[in-house]
Design brief:
2 strands; disordered N terminus; single chain; two-stranded antiparallel sheet
Length: about 160
């Protein structure tokens, strides 16, 4: 495990690694909770002020994880999933926002160039760590559960 809240040094003791692992799990669970909250009845049934507060909290928490200087790919995938859930709630087929939420639309539109920069940062990180190699195991891009559910390619399929 590398990245945010993880110790990269092998000389650290097991208790410290366990504590860091617990902190990592907390970040992951927070992102999962925010993702579920955005997809829940809270968005549809609450008053616009409460809905906007939930969305702004979700966006700020997700951006905090994404732009952390110590990159954690697992937590970042969940954070991008939270941002995608906000986009779906705003602009998807089940548009849940009303004209009173116009400020959220403006924030989301202004957020797009920042997200492009984040994708470039993560692309460079993955390229430097040689994580872009072809694999036979796949997971969802923006998962909703942890640990990630893996899907395997049939062994008869050849690499191209």
């Amino acid at each position: 495990m590398k990245g945010m809240n993880a110790l990269d040094e092998l000389s650290t003791n097991a208790l410290m690694n366990k504590r860091k692992s617990t902190a990592h799990q907390l970040v992951i669970k927070k992102m999962m909770y925010l993702n579920r909250s955005v997809h829940s009845f809270l968005i549809e049934s609450s008053v616009p002020a409460a809905r906007d507060l939930l969305i702004s909290t979700a966006l700020s928490s997700a951006l905090e994880v994404i732009f952390n200087p110590k990159i954690d790919l697992d937590a970042s995938r969940f954070a991008f999933g939270v941002i995608l859930a906000v986009f779906e709630a705003s602009f998807g087929a089940e548009k849940k926002f009303v004209p009173e939420s116009e400020d959220i639309y403006v924030i989301i539109c202004r957020l797009l160039p920042t997200l492009c920069d984040a994708f470039n940062i993560y692309f460079e990180f993955c390229k430097s760590k040689k994580l872009l190699k072809p694999k036979r195991t796949f997971t969802q891009v923006f998962p909703s559960s942890y640990p990630f559910e893996e899907h395997f390619i049939d062994s008869n399929v050849e690499d191209v």
